[in-house]
Amino acid sequence: MAAALTLSATMAFAADGLPNVTILATGGTIAGTGATSTTTVGYTAAKVGVEKLIEAVPELKKVANVKGEQVFQIASENMTNDHWLKLAKRVNELLAQKDVDGIVITHGTDTIEETAYFLNLTVKSTKPVVIVGAMRPSTAISADGPVNLYNAVTLAGSKDAVGKGVLVALNDQINAGRDVSKTNTSTADTFRTPELGFLGYMQDNRPHFYRQVVRKHTAEAEFDISALDSLPQVDIVYGYANNNRTALDALVKAGAKGIVHAGVGNGSLSNAMKPGLIEARKQGVLIVRSSRVGNGIVARNGEANDDELDFVASDSLNPQKARILLMLALTKTTDAKAIQKMFYTY
Ligand SMILES: NC(=O)CC[C@H](N)C(=O)O
C-alpha cells in the first residue's frame, strides 16, 4: 500500500515540468489585515481570500502550477474537530487525484501544531502536505506571509518532501508536524522543535533535509476518518500547585470519553487530582498522563503506576497533541494497553 502510494506520487511529479500544488486556505494571520503597515498586534485575522494570497506572490508561478481553494476562513483558535474532519477529507480527495502532487494549507498559527498532527495521522498519501502561516498580517511592513507561502509551495512541490509526513514550514525552517510547537506568542521564529530539532531549511528555492521522523504517519497510520462525522470527546485538565479536581469532574460529567492530564514535571498527579482520575477510569474514561513541561518523555509507570491504574503515558507528545492521538485511538479501541502501544507508535 505504502509502496504503491510512493510510486504514484513519484510518477505524478515526473509527468510535467512543474508540480501541481493546491493551496487550501483556512484563515489566520497570513490572511490578516491591520489598520496600518505598522500594526502587528490588534489586527484582524482571516480576511484575505486565497486568490489574493496567491496574487500577492507572483513568484509562485515559477515553482508550481498553483490552484487555490478557500476551505474555511477562521482564526485558528476557533478550529474544531469538525473543521479537521472536513480538511482531512478534502486533502485525501485531492491527493488521490493524479493531477495533484502536493498540498499547502494556509492556517492561523495558534493551532497549526494540532492541525499538523491530526493530518499527520489521517492523511492517506505520501505526497507532501505542508502547513504554513504567518506572524505578521498581510498589510504589515516585512510581512512574513509571502515568503512563507513561497517556501511552502516550493516544499509541497518537491520530491524531497514525499513520505516525510505532514510538515510545517515557516521562517525558512521545515519542522515535523508531529513534534513542532508554537513557542513564542508573537515572534516570527516561534515554530520550533526545541529538543528533537527541526528537519531542514528552505533555501535557494529548494528544501535541504537533514533528518526525518521515525514514528509512523500518513500512509502508514491506521486511522481512517473517511466515514466519520464526529470524534470522541477528549479534554485536557491542567496540573499546577494547589490544583483540585473540580474541572476534571465537570468534564467527566459532561461526557468526556478521554482525559489528557497535563501534569507538572514528568506527568505527576497531585493527591487532590489522582482520586478523580482513578474514579473517571473506573467509569470507562481513558486517562493519558502528559506534561505541561512541553519537552521530554512522560515515562510509563514513572510518576504513577500506569499498569495498576490502567492509565496511558503520553511518551513525548505534549497535551494538545496527546489529545488528538487519544481521540483517534478511541475511534479504534477503548483498551488502554492498545492505546499505550499507539502512543509508542505515532
Ligand atoms: N499568527 C497567527 O496566525 C495568529 C492569529 C490567530 N490567533 C490564529 O491563530 O488564526
Structure write-up:
With 346 residues, the chain is an alpha/beta fold. It has 2 domains: 219 residues, 3-Layer(aba) Sandwich (Rossmann fold), CATH 3.40.50.1170; 112 residues, Rossmann fold. 30% of the residues lie in helices and 19% in strands. It has 11 helices and 14 strands. The strands form 3 sheets. It has an 8-stranded mixed beta sheet with strand order 2-1-3-4-5-6-9-10, sandwiched between helices. It has a 4-stranded parallel beta sheet with strand order 11-12-13-14, sandwiched between helices. Strands 7-8 form a two-stranded antiparallel ribbon. A hairpin with a 2-residue loop joins strand 9 and strand 10. Helix 5 packs parallel to helix 10. It is globular. Bound molecules: glutamine. The site of glutamine has 12 residues, from loops. One of its GO terms (biological process) is asparagine metabolic process. It comes from Azospirillum humicireducens. It holds the Pfam family Asparaginase_C. InterPro entries: AsnASE_II, Asp/glu_Ase-like_sf, Asparaginase/glutaminase-like, Asparaginase/glutaminase_AS1, Asparaginase/glutaminase_AS2, Asparaginase_C, L-asparaginase_C, L-asparaginase_N. This is L-asparaginase.
Put simply, the count of helices is: 11
CATH homologous superfamily designation of the largest domain: L-asparaginase, N-terminal domain
**CATH architecture classification name of the largest domain:** 3-Layer(aba) Sandwich
Structural class, from secondary structure content? Answer: alpha/beta
Bound molecules: glutamine
What is the mean predicted local confidence, pLDDT? 95
State the end-to-end distance: 18 Å
Q: Quick one: overall form?
A: globular
Spatial order of the strands in the main sheet?
2-1-3-4-5-6-9-10
What Rg do the Cα atoms give?
20 Å
Please give the number of β-strands: 14
The run of helices and strands is HEHHEHEHEHEEEEEEEHEHEHEHH
CATH overall fold name of the largest domain: Rossmann fold
**Helical residue percent band:** 25-40%
When the domains are counted, the total is 2
Poorly predicted regions: 1-11
CATH class of the largest domain: Alpha Beta
Instruction: Profile the largest sheet.
Output: 8 strands, mixed
Pfam families: Asparaginase (PF00710), Asparaginase_C (PF17763)
Domain Asparaginase/glutaminase C-terminal: 233-343
Keywords: Hydrolase, Plasmid
Family: Belongs to the asparaginase 1 family.
